[in-house]
Design brief:
heterodimer; A: 179 residues; alpha/beta; Beta Polymerase, domain 2; five-stranded mixed sheet; 3 helices; 7 strands; B: 405 residues; mainly alpha; Cytochrome-c3 Hydrogenase, chain B; 2 domains; three-stranded antiparallel sheet; 17 helices; 8 strands
């Protein structure tokens, strides 16, 4: 007997993210309230990406956290990306937001130049940003201004360079020694 | 003051706090840190003034390695992150890549994935239960939980050939179908498991020492838990009803009937109870998945991505060519970025995959639930006794392979 379950064959490509369906409530609200905070909104693969100028990232996060109907009170993740030394802007920092009440998600993206990889810290908005930002600093060299304790977290304190940058060789420059 | 009469005054017990604070280093070779975690504890007597986790001892640059490996080779790396929940890691990674490729997964493959993920969740919780009780001083539980876990590992081994590093889920489906007689073996496990859970409850839940060591210890309020990004059983132990299987269902979880256990006490005991009840719920899901298994393909119909069957390779030229190309050159993944999250045994496991085209990812990032849960430890451990720090670490259920990556 073939079991007929209409929902059982849902493919992973069909997302259930409310925020993923256009128009995304987060993007519309952000553009309505502060148009200059959302430079560009990309809807792809059922996920919404909002590109935010770096000087507004903390304010945008704090707005999305407290705005009624959005309530992005949970910071899932922060991760960096290096487009490569020849690209400009070189670095991306992605903020993945989630709402524990509305269950929707959104991604904020900040683009940074190689010469000036500074971005305001969002540790004041969510305390969980602390370790995520330390990790991004450690591996990419992105500096989070206003972070309470910006130290390396995974690599040793005396490590030279930032390991996840594209111009950092896979096996490092030289064997690491504790001496 | 002592009640015994003739004690010389210099030996009298005086209840006086120490004026000085002491800093001690706990770990990285400490059995109850579950790996190579080092804690820098500032103590006032036995009270923790400040706890600072020091991680990175197990850092092996896995995220860097992804960028130098083809997409399908990355699956092997995911096994080694949260090594107690390798199938969950496999699932998060392959689903992220499948999302980039827009692949449709056959129903049988999805059901088997759910079945194995829930078995793996039980196995992961069993290791947690055994070690958590061991940390607190109950040694016996460990033997009982590992006996049950062995049965699950045998099932995983039967299907994938590996016990701890199965790499069973592949991009587009499964490595291969489950072997003959597999359903009967799962059924055997399902029949025995409720009795085992009863045993655990008798051994641990009813144990007054365990209760005293866990109730009211390691308190974190629901607001703080959300603020610190706790997820999984740690968050549900604070009464916050968030389970990715419910909030953002994947792999057909929305069609299964199960409860999301919640506890309101916000302490070590609450997190313990959530995990104990989750094992029963996982048992329910496995039962449903097993009943739902119907014959069918376990690989997506995408010959350029999914490896062909061995038999087809011997008879079909194009299958042989596809096999050669996938293995030798890999497959192109269209440019794009995804963040896919699943409910792993420890919480929200998120995978960020960015592709700029080509056979290798430009960036793979894992949001390990243990990483985030551990980051809240300084907040939770502050003001607790040093002996309770061990109980708190156990209740966070961390795996350093995932934290250090």
């Amino acid at each position: 007997m073939e079991q007929q379950n209409p929902q059982a064959n849902i493919s992973p490509t069909e997302s259930h993210l409310d925020a993923g369906r256009t128009p995304s409530p987060a993007a519309t609200a952000l553009q309505r309230e502060h148009a200059e905070w959302a430079v560009e909104v990309v809807d792809a693969l059922d996920e919404t990406t909002i590109i935010v100028p770096r000087e507004h990232i903390a304010a945008a996060c704090s707005f999305l956290k407290s705005a009624p109907g959005l309530e992005f009170n949970f910071l899932s993740d922060i991760c960096g990306f290096d487009r490569g030394p020849e690209e400009e802007p070189r670095f991306e920092v992605n903020y993945h937001l989630f709402s524990t009440t509305k269950h929707h998600r959104v991604r904020l993206k900040v683009l940074l130049d190689e010469q000036d990889p500074h971005v305001p810290s969002v540790t004041g908005v969510w305390r969980t940003a602390n370790w995520h930002e330390r990790e991004t600093f450690d591996l990419f060299g992105v500096i989070f201004d206003g972070h309470p304790d910006l130290r390396r977290i995974l690599l040793p304190d005396d490590w030279q360079g930032h390991a996840l940058r594209k111009d950092f060789p896979l096996r490092g420059y030289e064997p690491y020694s504790l001496e | 003051m002592s009640t015994v009469a003739n004690i010389p005054p210099q030996f009298e017990i005086v209840d006086q706090p120490l004026d000085t604070q002491m800093t001690i280093s706990m770990g990285p070779q400490h059995p109850s840190t579950h790996g190579v975690l080092r804690l820098e504890l500032v103590l006032d007597g036995e009270m923790v003034v400040k706890a600072t986790p020091d991680i990175g001892y197990l850092h092996t640059g896995m995220e860097k390695l992804f960028e130098y490996r083809k997409y399908q080779q990355g699956i092997v790396i995911t096994d080694r992150m949260d090594y107690l929940n390798p199938l969950g890691n496999n699932l998060a990674y392959v689903m992220a890549v499948e999302k980039l490729l827009q692949l449709e997964i056959p129903e049988r493959a999805q059901t088997i994935r759910v079945l194995f993920c829930e078995l793996q969740r039980i196995a992961s919780h069993l290791v947690w239960l055994g070690t958590h009780a061991l940390d607190i001083g109950a040694m016996t539980v460990f033997f009982y939980t590992f006996r049950e876990r062995e049965k699950i590992l045998n099932l995983i081994e039967a299907a994938s050939g590996g016990r701890l590093t199965p790499s069973y889920f592949r991009i587009g489906g499964l490595m291969m179908d489950v072997p003959a007689g597999f359903e009967r073996r799962v059924q055997q496990f399902l029949n025995d498991f409720p009795q085992a859970v009863k045993e655990f409850h008798t051994l641990v839940s009813g144990n007054r020492i365990f209760q005293k060591r866990t109730q009211g210890i390691g308190y974190i309020s629901a607001e703080d838990a959300i603020d610190w990004g706790l997820s999984g059983p740690c968050l549900r132990g604070c009464g916050v009803n968030v389970d990715v299987r419910r909030t953002n269902p994947y792999s057909g979880y929305e069609t299964y009937d199960f409860e999301v256990p919640l506890e309101q006490d916000c302490d070590v005991w609450a997190r313990y109870m959530v995990r104990m009840r989750e094992m029963t719920e996982s048992h329910r899901i496995v039962t449903q998945a097993l009943a739902r298994l119907r014959p069918g393909p376990v690989k997506a119909d995408a010959p350029k991505v999914v490896l062909p069957d061995r038999e087809a390779m011997k008879t079909h030229m194009d299958a042989l060519i596809h096999h050669f190309l996938i293995v030798a050159e890999g497959f192109d993944v269209p440019a794009g970025e995804v963040y896919h999250q699943i409910e792993a045994s420890k919480g929200e496991l998120g995978v960020y995959v960015k592709s700029i085209g080509g056979p290798k990812p430009a960036r793979v990032h894992f949001r390990g639930p243990s990483f985030v849960n551990l980051s809240a430890l300084p907040h939770i451990a502050q003001g607790e006794m040093i002996a309770d720090v061990v109980a708190i670490i156990g209740s966070l259920d961390i795996v350093l392979g995932e934290i250090d990556r």
